[in-house]
């Protein structure tokens, strides 16, 4: 049973003739007649009495009328519920690297909720590779990931850039003292981990043991205790509670700036919440000068 057929039934019931119904529905009379006949055959009962002056509802047709209206009204309500969804702020599911979630996102989320009180927010943390998978499966709407990235099904926008630094215990005064100390990093798939391992090799410190931890606080706590060293964005370490008990060492590496990208699935339905959030982040970045690291065009 099709919605179109029910709409035809309701129109004929209202107007009383096939000719008038065909004009309102903008179709030929034979289509109206065939739809009504098909509906009666499907239901196994006559809905109209046919006469010279038109068509009138049978008792069965009268009984069926309210049910048909309810179905058509439900369809209209379902369509209306999504009206202007692309321009409305309704739901935003964000995936983020652990470091970005811990330091950058809280301020942005606070401002976003203040200006969009009706928003529903979902948050997930994970390494870049995991977040890309979630985007492709449409399980998140937006991912904040680090490093150069290209994928034919995703589109990205630079939101800020992070300066990578070497973080060590307070007693280490220069990178040369790192030697064979373990490297403490997030799990595989993290762009910062990849950079850290590459930098250690290029700097002649490899091979170093790898200590893999799942949280930013865990990594910095172990660094402060002298368990090992790490490479993380300057903003992340300076914004943490461990800043006063670790040393930061600036890198001479020309590639030490790593872009943070906002990435979305190009095939996903438009969601105004994503655009509203990006407008907030990029507007804040532009207004804050150098506080978000090296500024880059959106």
TrEMBL record:
Record keywords, A-Z: DNA-binding, Transcription, Transcription regulation
Gene3D superfamilies in the cross-refs: 3.40.190.290, Winged helix-like DNA-binding domain superfamily/Winged helix DNA-binding domain
Residue ranges occupied by any HTH lysR-type domain in the UniProt entry: 1-58
Gene Ontology molecular-function annotations: DNA-binding transcription factor activity; transcription cis-regulatory region binding
InterPro entries for this protein: LysR_HTH_N, LysR_subst-bd, WH-like_DNA-bd_sf, WH_DNA-bd_sf
Residues making up the signal peptide according to the UniProt record: none
Similarity comment text for this entry: Belongs to the LysR transcriptional regulatory family.
Protein name: LysR family transcriptional regulator
Organism: Stappia sediminis
């Amino acid at each position: 049973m099709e919605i179109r057929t029910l709409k035809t039934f309701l129109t004929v019931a209202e107007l009383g003739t096939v000719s008038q119904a065909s004009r309102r529905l903008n179709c030929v009379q034979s289509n109206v007649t065939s739809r009504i006949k098909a509906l009666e055959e499907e239901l196994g009962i006559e809905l109209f009495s046919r006469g010279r002056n038109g068509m009138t509802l049978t008792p069965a047709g009268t009984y069926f009328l309210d049910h048909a209206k309810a179905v058509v009204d439900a369809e209209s309500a379902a369509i209306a519920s999504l009206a202007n969804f692309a321009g409305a702020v309704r739901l935003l599911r964000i995936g983020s690297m652990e470091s970005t979630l811990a330091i950058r996102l809280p301020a942005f989320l606070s401002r976003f909720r203040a200006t969009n009180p009706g928003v529903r927010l979902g948050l997930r943390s994970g390494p870049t590779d995991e977040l890309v998978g979630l985007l492709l499966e449409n399980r998140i709407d937006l991912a904040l990931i680090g490093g150069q990235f290209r994928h034919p099904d995703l589109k990205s926008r630079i939101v800020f850039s992070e300066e990578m630094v070497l973080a060590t215990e307070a007693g280490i005064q220069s990178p040369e003292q790192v030697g064979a100390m373990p490297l403490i990093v997030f799990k595989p798939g993290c762009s910062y981990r990849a950079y850290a391992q590459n930098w250690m090799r290029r700097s002649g410190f490899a091979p170093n043991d790898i200590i893999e931890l799942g949280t930013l606080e865990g990594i910095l706590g172990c660094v402060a205790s002298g368990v090992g060293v790490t490479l993380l964005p300057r903003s992340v370490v300076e914004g943490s509670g461990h800043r006063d008990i670790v040393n930061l060492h600036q890198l001479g590496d020309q590639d030490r700036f790593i872009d943070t990208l906002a990435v979305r699935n190009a095939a996903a339905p438009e969601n105004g919440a994503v655009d509203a959030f990006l407008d907030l982040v990029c507007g804040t970045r532009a207004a804050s000068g150098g506080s978000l690291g090296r500024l880059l065009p959106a």
